[in-house]
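One-letter codes give the sequence; the integers encode the fold. A sample entry reads:
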Amino acid sequence: MMRKIFLFSFPLLLAAGQPQLRADSPEAWAGTYELSPSTTIHIEQNDDGWTWRRAGADPLPMVFDGPTAAEIPDAGIRLRLGGDGDARRLYARRYGETVRFPRPGSGMELPDARNLPALIDAVTPRLMLARDVPGVSVALVRRGEISWLGQYGVTQHDQDEKVGPETVFEAASMSKPFFAYMVLQLVEEGAFDLDTPLVEYFGGPYIDDDHRHEQMTGRMVLSHSGGFPNWRPGGRSGGGPIPVRFDPGTGFTYSGEGFWFIQRSIENMTGQSLAEMSRERLLDPLGMSRSSYVWLDEYDKIASAGHTAGGLIPERNRPIYRSGNSAFSLYTTPEDYAKFLIEMMNRDRSATHSISIDSLRKMLTPITLAEGRSPIERSFDENEGEVHFGLGWRVEKVPSGTRYLHSGSNRAGFRCYSEFNPATGNGIVIMTNSAGGQHVWQELMRHVGEI
């Protein structure tokens, strides 16, 4: 397995004999620079001095340190200017990564998508700078094996600890398909039936206000057609009645509450906690040694902090999950989660933990049309097509074929994405430690195209 870690030190910016550039010269600094296909940076001089402005954002003051160096204190960015007036380059350093901007109007050259490691190396630091994301970690699967790992930035913006292959992130809603796989294991063992009302496993009503919920089955909940909202009023730990938005099985509403319902029903049926069941059934068999649905002591040293959308403020009130929640609490690394994608694509189903090929097909068969949702955009076919949910996985029907994927978004400041292609054995896992990370993985996938 090849491992690639993308870390730069500043290059030598001014060669001997080049003219010194004046920081107060518009010819030296002013211009519009392309940070990514969707993000431009404007460096401008006005009555208040020099400013750095990202398109659509407020301008931030620049503070100069000599003719070729500047800082943007409000964003934690350091700048260097190199080259002459015609071929100048702007270098920005943030979160321990360096980005080189071409001269205004020259465009951005990137490696071909056929060399995904090089493309991800080139694009990711730019997106981190553009979207205020301190840390990113990526795993690629090729032909059923983990082929490459890439890590960028830091685990916390105000510390020097680099993101490494061992850095643990929150998988957020990518916890759901992992749990769904274990439900299918129970189905194959004859211990659980997808079409039996969950209240029969739960031991009674889940709520008192609407008896329609007593019709909810595992199949409905795993495909987000049960009728519960995402979470009860007040959030995951809130109180008050939980509305049932439609007759179970007749519509679509993405629901973490539904996953909590089926989890508690199965825990009641088996007498095992989610953490115990996942360790025994899937984490240990797949060798996912750094993963858990609950916080482990070792995470004190290897877990990343989450950050607000500005990328400079760690989420100080980040919850620590001491009890597991199948909808969002899985702690993992891209490398570990990639092992689960490999299990989803493995044609050899003889292992004791592996579900049958028939059960895999059921997981990936579209069940519920996710009205109002669009496919993840790619550069070549925009976002045309339909979005469905199977049993845990999101299934997108697009002009180029069918995609199997899931994203994740936790309020603790984590955004992540995973996708796999059973026909090729290829997959990708992207994990970030900031609320701005959704823009990072979305734009990365535009560049990546089909995996």
